Amino acid sequence: MTFLEKTPGHRGRRKALRAINYIENGSASIMESIAFMILTLPHALGGYGLHDAVFNYEIKLKHDVSKRLGQKRCFTDLYYESKRLAVEYESFAFHNSPSEQGKDVMRAAVLEKQRIGVMRLTTIQLYDKDACRDFASILASRLGKRIQIRTKKFDQMHALLRTFLPTEKPTTV
Fold it and tell me: What's the whole-model pTM score?
């Protein structure tokens, strides 16, 4: 932001100032970043407009559950603090073994016990345009929002966002 404040009159400054409003630090992977953009950017930029998510939000665990997991805190991929709702991105790279999947289920149960809802977004859902829209619709409902896309630019911009997805489309294991 400091750099942009020093660039009045430069080409692209207005767009850069607008873009900086949508930057969020803390992503752990490119796929989390893409999921974040698809879910949170405004419709005119190709997203579903479900803003207010935070990357890798720290949740302190209560004593009884922290002993079970062997840790005092955990981090959720995306978190909507006002609704106590976590979105966990489950990639094939890190969630492909029964052991890892079991840990994810235990962690989700611990969060649910602390009254934090958990939604899982898989790689397949992210790549499948319709499944991703369904996920966003369910997320919107849980956030108490409705997705009403009224801009003509959405389809074009959404397609552009999807070009950021790695070209190697995932396969089921």
Answer: 0.80
Domain boundaries, the chain: 2-162
Phi then psi for 47, rounded to 5 degrees? Answer: -100, 175
Give the sheet arrangement for strand 54-60, strand by strand: 54-60, 73-80, 85-90, 117-122
- Tell me the residue type at 156: Q
pLDDT tens, residue by residue, 5-57: 777 777 776 666 555 555 556 666 788 889 999 999 999 999 999 999 998 89
Using CA atoms, how far residue 51 sits from 6, 41, 46, 113, 136, in Å, is: 28, 7, 13, 25, 12
> pLDDT, tens digit, for every residue of 62-97?
877 777 777 888 889 899 999 999 999 987 555 455
Cα distance between residue 151 and residue 10, in whole Å? 28
Structure token pair of residue 115: 């009254």
